Amino acid sequence: xxxxxxxxxxxxxxxxxxxxxxxxxxxxxxxxxxxxxxxxxxxxxxxxxxxxxxxxxxxxxxxxxxxxxxxxxxxxxxxxxxxxxxxxxxxxxxxxxxxxxxxxxxxxxxxxxxxxxxxxxxxxxxxxxxxxxxxxxxxxxxxxxxxxxxxxxxxxxxxxxxxxxxxxxxxxxxxxxxxxxxxxxxxxxxxxxxxxxxxxxxxxxxxxxxxxxxxxxxxxxxxxxxxxxxxxxxxxxxxxxxxxxxxxxxxxxxxxxxxxxxxxxxxxxxxxxxxxxxxxxxxxxxxxxxxxxxxxxx
Length: 298
Hints:
This protein has helices at 9-32, 38-60, 68-93, 98-105, 108-119, 127-144, 147-150, 154-179, 185-208, 217-250, 253-269, 275-292, 294-297. The protein is mainly α.
């Protein structure tokens, strides 16, 4: 297992920046959903991010793989890491607050530990990790609220959709480790977004119709942010932080995202989370901190 790395001031700064970028993306997505349908919003996200990353691949002169096996891996990665979670979470945001979506999204780290323990022999579920996982699920349950368990409605379904997206992210992480680890990170990101775009395009056209470019300026600003900055540029920053901080410390970014989304949701969308959501996030954050310590104690 990877040893825990010491976080330099630069690593801390870039980790916090990544958290700010991703936290703001939840609000940007919700703003875009005011004027465009869910699948169209996801198509914009994967297409423009894909285009930006392939431009960087071309500028850097990175060799494009020709093996059908690699492109199949891209397609599956695009399904697991982009098409499924982007779609589920965007739909969920129609019915639950931005901040709650970000809190539930933080469960990605919890499911990631479980999936890794299930699929990889070197990622055993130690007592330390088990405590973190249990606290994580307790935090998620608290954030969702008792009413979601006693009475099922559209809001409950939206919450489950967001959680299903985090499970997909967890399996994507395992798939990427097994099938894409030897590739350039930029190439892998461009490839998976290409796979995602190929999967989403026909669904978007069939369900929403042909996308139009005649959109309000605020919608284009939101799309530009969540596609170019929070997807394409964030992937590049993600791999920089990963190299400096290690995968264990990188998990800390999940603690930065929800507060940013909650604050921006309040300022820009007039959203107000209940006490149970805030308490749930505090419990989940404690679980994530315990999980983050596994590199030192496992």
